[in-house]
Structures are given as structure tokens and as C-alpha cells.
Amino acid sequence: DTGVSQDPRHKITKRGQNVTFRCDPISEHNRLYWYRQTLGQGPEFLTYFQNEAQLEKSRLLSDRFSAERPKGSFSTLEIQRTEQGDSAMYLCASSLGEDSHYSNQPQHFGDGTRLSIL
Amino acid sequence: AQKITQTQPGMFVQEKEAVTLDCTYDTSDQSYGLFWYKQPSSGEMIFLIYQGSYDEQNATEGRYSLNFQKARKSANLVISASQLGDSAMYFCAMRGRVGSNFGNEKLTFGTGTRLTIIP
After folding, report:
1. Any chain A CB within 8 A of the CB of B62?
2. Is pLDDT of B17 > 90?
3. Cα–Cα 20 to 30 A to B38, which of A112, B29, B83, B113?
4. Which residues of B touch A35 (CB under 8 A)?
């Protein structure tokens, strides 16, 4: 039973550099979510994909952030020109749900990518 | 907009005792879902239990039960016979609509409760 996989687990980079994270959801899950969690807080929603379509983006997702999910399988989250405030845990989750219906299925989370900006 | 409030930043409980973690919520949606997740120090978010807004019975999953009081907008997690391995952060979350399209959803999380089980 393979769960949600995220890579890398940790990323340390200098301010101003670009970083890219990868998420592999549970194989049959059509919905994929990205969240950001800072120290002492709960996760905050960033963006949502249904299959390959990015359907929603939070205002937290500035124009330096871009997410893709080509072919509706894995997803990538890229941050350009990183800033100190981008330091956080980036969590990916996936779930199964019918189009245009809310789901009672839980979102299953990966272990996250912890980003540290020097 | 949805909001989750967890008023207990930290709790200490003796091993084998039951513990209740508080969660209140606010939403204008008629249909919503409530979830509890456990986050150990290693960082992964582990799903524990789910309660739908139209479910008439309180959800139970093994040692976990959810005390759902819709009129009071509360969804407290009860852990029976606590174990040392229950020490972790616990987050209450609500599934609600995001954007204008029906079916597009996100989870809104509270700030969590750090539970420590004392041997």
C-alpha cells in the first residue's frame, strides 16, 4: 500500500534561488492538494487539482509560486526567487471524489517537504 | 468563510486515561465535513476520524470517537485508554467549499493541540 510520496524531504537553499518539489499521490486518487504549514500553525490551503486541471488557488499563492499536474498523475510545486518567508513545511495530499461533488473521503497527506531559506 | 478553533494549546494526560480534545467550528455552508488528524513529531499528517454534517450518529474508529454537537458547532475528539504513542499534535479540520464551483473543496485547519501522554 503506497501512500502519498513527496520529494525531497528537506530542502535548504539561499534566498533568491528557485526550488521545485514533487508529489506522487495515491495512484487512484483524482484530487490533489498543496498546503503550507508554518511552525505552530495548522496547514493552510494553497491549491487544488482535479485530474490535470488546477481548479482553485489561494491568495497565499503569489505569482512566484506555480503548480502543475501534467497527465493528472504527479504534481510539482515551484517557488521562484525564494524569500525568507517561504520557509515552511509544504504538504501534498490526495483524495478520491466525483467531479462536482463534495467528498466524505479523507485527504491523505504525504510526509511533506521542509524548506529552509538561508 | 470557514473557521476552526482549538482552544487547548497543550494537554498532559496520564497513560490509560481518556482524553477529550476540543474543537469548535464556524461555517455558513449547509453541507460540510469534520476531520481529525494526528501529526507526530516526524511530521506526517495521519487521518483519524470523519464526521459528516448530516450524519446522525457520532463517528467512532477504534479508540477514537467524535462527540458531534451540531447546534453548538462543536466536534470534540475523544481518545479512550490513552497510550504513549498518542503523544502528538492533533488538528481538527473542516472540509468546505473553495471558490465558486460546487465540489471544489479544501480543508481548513485549527491551530492544533499538543497532547503529551505521561507514563
Report:
1. no
2. yes
3. B29
4. 107
Rg for chain B, CA atoms, rounded: 14
Cα–Cα distance list, B87 to A92, B23, B82 (Å)? 23, 18, 9
3-state secondary structure B30-94: CCCEEEEEEECCCCCCEEEEEEECCCCCCCEECCEEEEEECCCCEEEEEECCCCHHHCEEEEEEE
Q: Is B76's pLDDT higher than 90?
A: yes
Tell which of A29, A50, A109 to mutate to test the B interface (max B CBs under 10 Å): A109
pLDDT in tens, B20-71: 999 999 998 888 899 999 999 988 899 999 999 888 899 999 999 999 999 9
Q: How far is B102 from chain A (nearest CA, A)?
A: 5
Amino acid at A51: N
For chain A, what is the mean pLDDT? 92
Which residues have C-beta within 8 Å of that of residue B78, sequence separation ≥ 6?
B18, B19, B20, B21, B64, B65, B66, B67
**Distance separating alpha carbons of residues A84 and A80, to the nearest angstrom:** 12
Torsion of Cα atoms, A52 then A108 then B100 then B74, to 10°: 180
Give per-residue pLDDT as tens, B101-119: 666 788 999 999 999 999 9
Q: What's the pLDDT at A15?
A: 96
* Alpha carbon B84 to its chain's center: 19
Distance, in Å, from the CA atom of A40 to the CA atom of B111, rounded to the nearest integer, reads 7
**Residue A45 near chain B (CB below 8 Å):** yes
pLDDT score of A16: 97
